[in-house]
Design goal:
Elements: H1 9-35, H2 39-65, H3 69-88, H4 92-104, H5 108-136, H6 141-176, H7 179-194, H8 196-208, H9 217-234, H10 239-250, H11 254-327
Helix pairs in contact: 1-4, 1-11, 2-3, 2-10, 3-11, 4-9, 4-11, 5-9, 5-10, 5-11, 6-9, 6-10, 6-11, 10-11
């Protein structure tokens, strides 16, 4: 005779409140990081970004004029600070990563790996963009900055596809954890025990051979999902990195610009990692609370609904950002109106900046 443990109504209420709280955190992260939070804060961040852009171009200009240890340290310091600032402000990448970790789960190592991989990929994409467009095709920096809009659209599309995939995976999980599926699985398990020879043989065979003979489909799906998450976030290059590399190319300091961009990516990675770890710890605490109050079966099913909600949120974010980018394209952030290109490129003197050139 099988006795089923039923959750107390008060525990069930706490469970739903906890799940709703987790979803609320994910939705708030999406709204703040992707849409810019409060309007006044968003405007202030734009002003700070312009100041950082100007500081970056001045730092690379000063280094080109008087290359010294202090100029090198100033350039790398400003680049690192810009990376930290850029990661702390609004952005769809952080919204996708935090929502993914909150709703889908992940270990600390996985969170750190995703954060660093996505941030470093942004730096690599910025370098590749300047190499192809500025050095290869002869575009000016303003044109290269404008091309970032098209790369953004590709990133938004991948975010939408990632959300759709997460929804499909969550639906499959919910089907596996449904009451009917659980009853069928229990029946099959009891049936296999009644024919103990086949069950024991399969169990012993798995252990005597020293491990698995193939890749676990669930592990392969997780690997593909992690890769899609990194690519959807990382293919959008940082505008400050493209700007810095364009100025460095004009001044004949491209290698220095590459080093500064990678330091910038490191600053971004550290800040994003902090957000990712906070998401992992919040998710872990929620899972423990759900399992303690409701048991593994009920907790797994509720987390399946959370995963579905997270996938829907990510898919909606990608679609809305893509639609906004098409209907209301924004100009690349520049440092004012650069002079027209009427003479061969010369390193700027004094307080100018080389944005109008390559």
């Amino acid at each position: 005779m099988r006795v089923e443990a039923r959750a107390h109504p008060r525990n069930r209420t706490r469970t739903w409140l906890l799940g709703l709280g987790l979803l609320a955190v994910a939705l708030l992260a999406l709204n703040f990081f992707a849409q810019g939070g409060l309007q006044s804060l968003s405007l202030q961040l734009v002003a700070w970004q312009r100041d950082f852009h100007r500081a970056l171009t001045m730092a690379i200009t000063n280094f080109s004029g008087t290359p010294s240890a202090s100029a090198w340290a100033a350039l790398l310091g400003i680049s690192f600070a810009y990376g930290v600032f850029h990661a702390a402000g609004p952005g769809h990448g952080k919204a996708v990563l935090t929502t993914y970790l909150l709703s889908q789960g992940g270990a600390v190592r996985r969170a750190l790996g995703l954060s660093f991989a996505a941030s470093m990929l942004q730096g690599v994409v910025a370098i590749s963009l300047v190499v192809v467009l500025v050095h290869g095709l002869g575009w000016v920096t303003r044109q290269a900055m404008g091309s970032v809009v098209w790369v953004e659209q590709a990133s938004f599309l991948m975010v939408a596809l990632l959300g759709a995939w997460l929804c499909w995976r969550a639906i499959r999980q919910l089907r596996r954890t449904s009451p009917a599926a659980a009853e069928r699985s229990a029946h099959e398990h009891d049936h296999s025990h009644s024919h103990g020879h086949g069950h024991d043989h399969a169990h012993d065979h798995a252990h005597c051979c020293g491990g698995h003979h193939h890749v676990d489909p669930q592990q392969a799906a997780d690997w593909r999902t992690a890769l899609a998450t990194v690519v959807s976030i990382g293919i959008r290059p940082c505008s400050g990195g493209v700007l810095l590399l364009g100025a460095a190319s004009l001044l004949g300091q491209f290698a220095v610009g590459v080093a500064a961009v990678m330091v910038m990516a490191l600053g971004t990675a550290l800040t994003v990692s902090a957000l990712a770890l906070a998401s992992v710890f919040a998710r872990g605490w929620a899972e423990k609370q759900l399992a303690r109050q409701n048991g593994l079966q009920r907790a797994s099913r509720l987390l399946g609904w959370v995963a579905l909600a997270g996938g829907l949120a990510i898919m909606s974010l990608g679609i809305s950002l893509s639609a906004t980018g098409i209907t209301q394209p924004t100009a690349a952030p520049m440092l004012g109106d650069p002079p027209a290109r009427s003479a061969p490129a010369q390193p700027p003197a004094g307080g100018g900046h080389p944005l109008g050139e390559r």
